[in-house]
Design a protein that fits this description.
single chain, binds coenzyme A, 6-stranded mixed sheet, alpha/beta, 10 strands
């Protein structure tokens, strides 16, 4: 398998799907895999024709079993530090994508796999799959944003329980604590992801990006500054032709046709 094949990029009508393509290793993130993913994300970030990004894994067993533990045994301490810098960079690249992102978790999602899902905007998990930040069971810690993003999502108390106990949650448990937005019937992750994609594509693509930027950018700001940030995000969409198209469609009682302009 060439480095190009480690992660596949499928494009279809304003939707880009990144598929981690190492089913035999449960889509574990080897160094070449995460570097390939970062290259593709850099492309997608600039691609104004891509309105939604879906991240999924090949096969049915795992979305991603985290860092490649076989490769890890071959790395010296300096190389491990370099890997950790890059895997953190990968999750930051995902979080920083302007487009809405969906983690379509087709199977188990552990360690870096769970961190990848946490960096996405929306998360769906297969009903038979488990999810968790299980790093402490390997005598390491989540190093790609997991200790930051999980507490913000489920609260510090729950995050401590999950991380310190290296819990593997069932899909229903993950749904109950708000770690995932939806549970897909076993084997039907792609269909549920498509439903979510369709719902997103019904809305103005630049508005989705502005709303995402408003939420993400405002989270860590005092509310008065966050409100100014929201105003700046709104200002970006006032001059767009999609906004006028939505108003025209409303007046004409038809569905709008957005162009991302
Ligand atoms: N890194 C490298 N290889 C991995 C891997 C990982 N994180 N997770 C699984 N694999 C490999 C296995 O070693 C095995 O390889 P082999 O066929 O050469 O023996 C292959 O993938 C299949 O794994 P297996 O455990 O037999 O599959 P499964 O479907 O029964 O279980 C998991 C899948 C994901 C539940 C299980 O592999 C697992 O718990 N992996 C570790 C997850 C983890 O702790 N991640 C945190 C990393 S920080």
């Amino acid at each position: 398998m060439t480095d190009q094949d480690l992660v596949l990029l499928e494009r279809d009508d304003h939707v880009a799907r990144l598929v981690i393509n190492r089913a035999e290793s449960r889509n574990a993130l080897s160094f070449p895999t995460l570097l390939r993913m970062r290259t593709l994300l850099a492309e997608l970030r600039k691609d104004t024709d891509v309105w939604v990004v879906v991240i999924t894994g090949a096969g049915e067993k795992a979305f991603c079993a985290g860092a490649d533990l076989k490769e890890r045994r071959t790395l010296n301490e300096e190389q491990v530090a370099d890997f950790v810098r890059n895997i953190r960079g990968l999750m930051d690249d995902i979080a920083a994508l302007p487009q809405p992102t969906i983690a379509a978790m087709n199977g188990h999602s552990f360690g870096g796999g769970c961190e990848m899902a946490l960096a996405c905007d929306l998360r769906i998990l297969d009903a038979n799959a488990q999810i968790g930040l299980t790093e402490t069971s390997l005598a390491i810690i989540p190093g790609a944003g997991g200790t930051i993003r999980l507490p913000r999502l489920v609260g510090a108390a729950k995050a401590k329980e999950l991380i310190l106990m290296a819990r593997r949650l069932t899909a229903d448990e993950a749904l109950n604590i708000g770690l995932v937005h939806r549970v897909a019937p076993a084997g039907f992750i792609a269909g549920v992801a498509d439903e979510m994609v369709e719902a997103l594509l019904r809305n103005g693509p630049l508005a989705l990006q502005a709303a995402k930027a408003a939420i993400d950018g405002g989270l860590d700001l005092p509310s008065e500054v966050a409100l100014e940030h929201e105003a700046a995000c709104y200002a970006r969409i006032i001059p767009t032709s999609d906004r006028l198209e939505a108003l025209a469609a409303f007046a004409e009682k038809r569905q709008p046709k957005f162009k991302g302009q």
